[in-house]
Amino acid sequence: MHIVRHPLASATPGTTHELVSLHYGTPGQGPKVTIQGSLHADEVPGMLVAHHLRSHLDALEAAGRLRGEVVLVPMANPLGVGQWVLRGFQGRFELHSGENFNRHFVNLTDAVLDRVMDRLGADAAENVRLVRGALREAVAALGASSPLESLRKTLLGLAIDADVVLDLHCDGEAQLHLYTTPQTWPGDGQLLARCIGAELALLAERSGGDPFDEACSMVWPQLAERLGPGKPLPPACMAATIELRGEADVRHDLAAADAQGIVNFLIQRGVVAPEGGVPPVLPPLKREATPLAGSIPVVAPTGGMVVFLQVPGASVVAGQPLVDLIDPLTGQVTTLGAPVDGLFFARDLRRFAVAGMSLGKVAGREATRAGSLLSA
Ligand SMILES: [Zn+2]
Fold first, then answer.
1. pLDDT, tens digit, 9 for 90 and up, residues 332-345
2. Model-level pTM greater than 0.90?
3. How far is the CA of 244 from the centre of ligand 1 (A)?
4. What span, in angstroms and rounded, lies between the C-alpha atoms of 18 and 15?
5. Can the peptide bond before residue 279 be classed as cis, meaning omega within 30 degrees of 0?
């Protein structure tokens, strides 16, 4: 393993930040996997899973079991980890710009087409090789004058040519779930869900807002669409955002199991040789994937105290009471019901609401939402 330190653009004289990446295996030999923890800096479970993964990868490399390259970014947001305001950890939005750290990753489709359109041909494998080269060039050519732009460029540079990208996040209070694209289902997305024991997978091609995972994966089908049948291009990058339960679920037993699940996925994908040549037996899929457009938020119509009536993991029917909103001055209780039949899989960590706030999410089977599908 070798460590690479990436200095980020500085905002002001006298201040510097750096991103640190750990590199296992040999670049160019076998599949490449990039795994990053806690791009939303206050979502600590990702960093702890990366900590456990590091021990696995050290041991696997020492045992000669790596068949590919693994890039591990154990703390993907060195800017956000320092954002503390009045004793509160603010790791989701950059304080300077107000931008969500996991949005606005650039779509490189046009930049890649400009570079390789004339050179692509009938050989799909050669096309993948050429597109990967063009993706690397396109990221290197991105401007990045602010620390935030510099962070996004550096993260994209570590992942844009990978076969597999795993972005480790968490929700407020939630079951283990993941977001990925319909192209991976059934396929690598489903395999990942089984390996890590995900309770739910939410599928979307364009969730809106340009998150990191989609910038890595969706460029491939978008390119293929523009190339047409004479120039075949497979979807060569599978990317997923894994939501490692809730913010407070920072526990060694959970992180150890999650890291082992990811290693099992790497074995299935041929990045790690199985111990004794026998791949581990995988648990069955816990739940069929549902559309992200069918995940419906429970929105507070007024402010007030929040008393949940269901825990994450409850199967609910439309109208079933989920949460009481209580006005402490009038004593009025507003009970909010489930917006749809489905799985109540995540809820907010806070217990006082302001009007318009999303208090939780129910995953239904039917896609009923349009536009931007992610929360702010
Ligand atoms: Zn997140």
1. 999 999 999 999 99
2. yes
3. 9
4. 11
5. no
